[in-house]
From TrEMBL:
One of its GO terms (molecular function) is FAD binding. Gene3D superfamilies: 3.30.465.10, 3.30.70.2740, Alpha-helical ferredoxin. PANTHER family: D-2-HYDROXYGLUTARATE DEHYDROGENASE (PTHR11748:SF119), D-LACTATE DEHYDROGENASE (PTHR11748). SUPFAM superfamilies: alpha-helical ferredoxin, FAD-binding/transporter-associated domain-like, FAD-linked oxidases, C-terminal domain. It comes from Kocuria marina subsp. indica. GO terms for biological process: lactate catabolic process. The keyword Chaperone does not apply. Keywords: FAD, Flavoprotein, Iron, Iron-sulfur, Metal-binding, Oxidoreductase. This is FAD-binding protein.
């Protein structure tokens, strides 16, 4: 039933009066109006409970005011069961403790907000790798235990371990009337036996549930629990006598419609001693599905699959090296085998490959024993939902029919008919999922922006539901029904079972306040679609945000079928929430520091989506204070462009928004002091000794405050004007026959090695390169320019140094795009010399700006030509692996090093760029601080951001420095990273890799040579 409308003031006043943390701001409710589904429903407020008492107070305030309540964990629901119009209760912020790990009983006690991957990691550490927590959905590094219970999540290894319900021992809940109950394997009891009201409520509920089971014995036995992944509806078969009246499992999968979960005891499983991945290539997903029954005979732990669209998109977005080791084929299965010994598992893999080869469908199969190789291939499958949303071809795909399931033996026939049905509706789909369990995740090219497209969505989904039911399947295999499928349940279940569902819900929640619209009394599947109702307006931008394939789409349809490029860009976030992960990758440093949805890439994107939806005019939208607040702690690290499966580029969106927001306004002082830094460096360099002397006095602190900078950081020392020239000149003089004058303006000199004892640029491997000496290197680290020139010359390159132009980075990061475009236009003209010579940039941030921002801000063929040639110094060195003879470094190469991953280099040139370069250098032990350093250009120097910048440092860099041995080198190719290292650990000195490889002055005469 639908709750009666109430004033916002009443419930919020009650909540605040109870001392509960509640936020009803428009920005906050925008962040929580979405999950990972197609739906948008703005809540009244968001509550962040810290204790069970807070939850009870919230429930009572909502009950008294008849306000709906929606429970939420990681907010990754793809069916719309984590959004609603009342109060959203976010358990992930504070109620996220692991209370007890008990290897003796094989159980763990948790609060609902614990992230699944965190739970697994802590259980394995506490039990010396003997036990683990089995459910592992692809969203495991941000999805929570409470969410997994709510949806009955399964995961990649459900073939072996089943669903979350199979691992649920007890659940502590708060009911809609405030009772605190514990659901067990044999019934229901009051959590506190001295709580008289809860004791009475438990007795009453138990009687109603037992009566419900008695009344529908036959229907429950015939219609429920028929296949491994029958998640749709309530799991009322667990109330049957033969199931022991397992109320806890009956609650699993109830999607927050019966009670609020406040704690759980979950079962642990033994962790296999040895494991191996068998990767299988097929021509089609149907061929792959036909081999599943053979694979299941080998008792695999996982049988997952994906098609080529996801692989192509991953390579397009993250580079060709992001997916390696796949066998030939257009569709792939990932089969995990495990056992007691490596030899036994390897033998099992050989036997499996032989059997599948005999079936005649397998194109190629390989066994992958290496843990890193396994992890890299699993990442392709795990990022499927996001990668498939915006494809390399330029198309979009959406959930809605993304979770159907059949018995594994019926999967191939179901997929063949489903593909035919999609063809009838002129739809395409990206297929991936749990092949071994018969559950398919299919994102389909629905057009949810137009009325005709939404009509196709309605009709196709209804026909697809009939199809899966004909194959004996379920509408949902793990995502739940939510807003996407609840209205289709009458196609799957008899009226008797549907009435039993309604009675089950009424027993728990008579007023229908808990997550209304899911499972019982649903709205139509096309109600509250997020893409409906967005005004069709033009948002003029400086960045070229035209989506891939837009021109082709327009030509094929005869119209502009895509929305405005800015709208399309900010709608790229589909809510999968990878930015909320606390490990793996770099994204999102601000969320890792604050744990606030506001500071995640997803939270920011949702506010921008509501901006383009709700602003009365475009001009009003560009002045949105909510968007300004949401973007405030974005470090512009660019990591989301690589780590976000959907390819969201929040650094670009922030720059574009700030450019409009501050138009004809006074900017923050740091936008002038740091945003205009290249201009100030030109002045300061002429009087560097005087400037440095003043900055070392109390006047330096005053100058920092006047510039909007934090007084807690020492400002860097300025180099003398021309010092970098002397460094490069020295490098040129150190090589015989060098110093050849350049004929191009702005180019200092050519540095080439032509001594017979020095590598020759005309020999195999050597080439002509342009060394771009950027503003930061010229102004603060001129010695690095000389080192870089010597390294390149020592490797046989003829080096031409260019330093007369600027990449505009500081103007880009502060959203001063008119100036940035002028500088980049000038840079493109200066560097476009008609050659294909690599442009090797010393500072990674500047390299990234020239590679990525240049063609987007200056969308000309000249800019694109230059951008294609740009590479970072580390990326260029990494390309030498095994192919170059290089001059040996003058100083011994360190045996071990800590690398501060440079965010921009990571995102634009590849995640492992610096590690590969150090391997070339001969460093034996490399540990990576995989996370933003916290300074990120201007961010960490700004007074209002200093505290957060230090919290960011504590997520990765600071622990890595503390753990490093005394003789460990610290590699910081980025100037910002070097500044943070010196601030966090004054005893450490961040080095550029050019300084590690620097051969020093190259003397004439015989020289030893090294090999990269």
């Amino acid at each position: 039933m639908t709750a009666a409308p109430v004033t916002e003031h009443a419930v919020i006043s009650r909540l605040r009066g109870s001392g509960v943390e509640v936020d009803a701001s428009e920005r906050r409710t925008s962040e929580y109006a979405y999950d990972a589904s197609n739906y948008r429903v703005r809540p009244l407020a968001v509550v962040f409970p810290r204790t069970v008492e807070d939850v009870v107070a919230t429930v009572r305030a909502c009950a008294d005011t008849r306000t709906p309540i929606v429970s939420r964990g990681g907010g990754t629901s793809m069916a719309g069961n984590a959004v609603g119009s009342g109060v959203v209760v976010d358990f992930s912020r504070h109620m996220n403790r692991i209370l007890e790990i008990d290897p003796g009983t094989g159980t763990v006690a948790v609060e609902p907000g614990v992230v699944l991957a965190t739970l697994t990691r802590e259980v394995e550490a506490a039990t010396d790798q003997q036990f683990t927590f089995a459910p592992d959905p692809s969203s495991k590094n941000r999805a929570t235990v409470g969410g997994a219970i709510g949806n009955d999540a399964c995961g990649n290894h459900s073939v072996r371990y089943g669903r979350t319900s199979d691992h649920t021992v007890e659940i502590d809940v708060v009911t809609a009337d405030g009772a605190r109950l514990t659901a067990t394997a044999t019934g229901l009891r009051a959590t506190d036996p001295d709580d008289r009201a809860s004791v009475l409520r438990a007795d009453e509920l138990s009687r109603e549930l037992r009566a419900l089971a008695r009344e529908h014995l036959a229907a429950f036995r015939l219609e429920l629990g028929r296949i491994p992944r029958q998640v749709s509806g309530y799991h009322l078969q667990n109330l049957l006598p033969e199931k022991g009246f397992h109320v806890a499992r009956a609650l699993v999968g109830s999607e927050g419609t019966c009670a609020l979960i406040v704690g759980a005891r979950m079962r642990l499983v033994p962790k296999p001693a040895s494991a191996l991945l068998v990767c299988l290539g097929y021509d089609t997903v149907v061929d792959a599905a036909r081999d599943v029954t053979t694979i299941l005979e080998f008792s695999p732990a996982a049988v997952e699959g994906t098609d080529k669209a996801i692989v192509e998109t991953m390579r397009w977005r993250r580079g060709p090296d992001s997916v390696t080791g796949l066998p030939e084929g257009n569709a792939w299965l990932f089969v995990d085998l495990d056992g007691d010994t490596c030899e036994a598992v390897a033998g099992q893999a050989d036997e499996l490959l032989a059997r599948l080869g005999g079936n005649g469908r397998l194109v190629e199969g390989i066994a992958v024993a290496d843990p890193e190789g396994r992890a890299n291939l699993w990442r392709v499958r795990e990022d499927g939902a996001g990668l498939s949303s915006r494809l390399a071809t330029g198309g979009e795909s959406w959930p809605g029919w993304e979770d159907s399931a059949v018995a594994p033996e019926n999967l191939a026939d179901y997929l063949a008919e489903l593909r035919a049905l999609m063809g009838e509706y002129d739809l395409d789909g990206v297929m991936y999922g749990h092949f071994g369990a018969g559950c398919m995740h299919i994102r389909i090219t629905f057009d949810l922006r137009t009325e005709r497209g939404r009509e196709v969505y309605r009709e196709f989904t209804r026909d697809a539901a009939r199809l899966v039911v004909r194959h004996g399947g379920s509408l949902s295999g793990e995502h739940g029904d939510g807003r996407a499928r609840s209205a289709l349940l009458p196609l799957m279940y008899s009226p008797e079972v549907l009435e039993a569902f309604a009675a089950f819900r009424r027993a728990w929640d008579p007023e229908g306040l808990l997550n209304p619209g899911s499972i019982v009394d649903p709205a139509p599947i096309d109600a509250h679609l997020a893409l409906e109702g967005v005004p069709d307006r033009q948002w003029r931008t400086s960045f070229d945000l035209q989506p891939v394939g837009a021109a082709e789409t327009a030509r094929e349809s005869g119209r502009d079928a895509q929305p405005d490029p800015w709208v399309h860009a900010v709608q790229g976030c589909i809510g999968v929430g990878r930015c909320r992960a606390d490990s793996g990758g770099v994204m999102c440093p601000s969320f890792r520091a604050t744990r606030d949805e506001k500071d995640s890439t997803r939270g920011r994107a949702r506010v921008l989506q509501d901006m383009v939806r709700g602003a009365a005019t475009v001009a009003e939208g560009w002045r949105s204070q909510d968007a300004r607040e949401a973007l405030d702690l974005c470090l512009s690290c660019k990591a989301c462009t690589t780590d976000c499966p959907a390819g969201v580029d929040m650094a670009t969106y922030k720059s574009e928004f700030f450019d409009h927001y501050y138009a004809r306004r006074i900017r923050p002082r740091s936008h002038y002091s740091l945003g205009w830094l290249p201009r100030w460096l030109g002045i300061a360099g002429r009087i560097a000794p005087l400037v440095n002397a003043i900055l070392a006095t109390p006047l330096g602190g005053l100058a920092a405050r006047l510039g909007g900078l934090t007084p807690h950081r020492a400002l860097p020392r300025f180099a003398r004007a021309g010092q970098w020239r002397r460094e490069v000149d020295d490098a040129a003089r150190s090589v015989p026959r060098t110093g050849v004058p350049s004929q191009r303006p702005g180019v200092l000199a050519r540095v080439g090695a032509h001594d017979p004892n020095v590598p020759d640029p005309n020999a195999p491997g050597g080439q002509d390169v342009v060394l771009f000496v950027d503003t930061f290197t010229r102004g603060f680290r001129p010695e690095v320019a000389g080192a870089a020139a010597r390294v390149l010359a020592g490797a046989g390159d003829a080096v031409e140094c260019s330093a007369d132009v600027c990449c505009g980075l500081t103007w880009i990061s502060t959203g001063q795009l008119r100036t940035a475009k002028k500088l980049l236009t000038r840079a493109a003209a200066a560097l476009d010399d008609g050659s294909e010579r690599p442009v090797v940039v010393v500072e990674p941030s500047c390299a990234a700006a020239l590679r990525k921002d240049l063609p987007e801000l200056v969308p000309t063929e000249q800019a694109r030509r230059v951008a294609r040639r740009v590479t970072s110094f580390a990326a260029y060195v990494a390309s030498w692996a095994g192919e170059r003879h290089v001059a040996p470094p003058a100083a011994p190469v360190p045996r071990r090093a800590v690398v501060q991953t440079h965010c921009h280099e990571y995102s634009v040139f590849g995640p492992a760029t610096q590690r590969r370069a150090l391997v070339v250098a001969g460093v034996a032990e490399v540990s990576e601080a995989n996370g933003c350093c916290g300074v990120a250009g201007n961010f960490g120097f700004e007074a209002e951001h200093y505290d957060v910048s230090m919290l960011v440092a504590e997520t990765s860099l600071a622990p890595a420095l503390r753990a490093a041995a005394p003789d460990t080198a610290v590699l910081t190719d980025g100037f910002s990273c070097a500044m943070q290292v010196g601030h966090v650990d004054p005893g450490a000195r961040g080095l550029h890799i050019a300084q590690v490889l620097d051969p020093g002055p190259i003397a004439t005469g015989p020289q030893p040579s090294g090999t990269a």
